[in-house]
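Hi V.,

Quick status before I head out on leave. The structure for the redesign project is tokenized and pasted below; the design run finished overnight.
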């Protein structure tokens, strides 16, 4: 199974925010620069994460992005399911629909494989993702490009 770029970006943003608590809230632009992605893409991911209750954003002086308690303890499996949506691996009902859809055994096998993929991520939390050696690398990403 392959994650969408959007899910990958959102997971990296959550990981970056998970290690930024001591330094204070980060701006969306800082997270985008640290992850070396366009601001507009990061802003969309941040908005989706806010809707999921994983992070909150405060405006103004002293504002920025912070993980919520849910965001710190969220199951990676849950988060990936939410970000990826409920689509199946194959589009049997597409246009045109697959002529095998009524008798195909592949669709069920792929659905089972997809769920096994998510289930393997269920025991992991966001906090687990940022333990060493990942956490120190994330902290080293300043979010500011050299001038």
């Amino acid at each position: 199974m392959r994650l969408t770029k959007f899910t990958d970006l959102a997971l990296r943003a959550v990981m970056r925010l998970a290690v930024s608590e001591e330094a204070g809230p980060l701006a969306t632009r800082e997270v985008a620069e640290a992850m070396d992605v366009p601001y507009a893409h990061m802003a969309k991911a941040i908005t989706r994460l806010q809707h999921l209750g994983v992070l909150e954003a405060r405006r103004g002086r002293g504002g920025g992005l912070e993980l919520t308690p849910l965001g710190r303890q969220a199951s990676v499996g849950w988060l990936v399911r939410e970000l990826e949506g409920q689509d199946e691996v194959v589009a049997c009902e597409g246009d045109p629909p697959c002529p095998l859809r009524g008798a195909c055994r592949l669709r069920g096998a792929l659905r089972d494989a997809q769920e096994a993929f998510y289930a393997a991520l269920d025991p992991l939390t966001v906090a687990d993702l940022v333990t060493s050696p990942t956490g120190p690398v994330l902290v080293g990403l300043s979010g500011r490009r050299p001038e």
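Above is the designed sequence. The longest strand covers residues 55-58.

G. will cover questions while I'm gone.

Best,
W.
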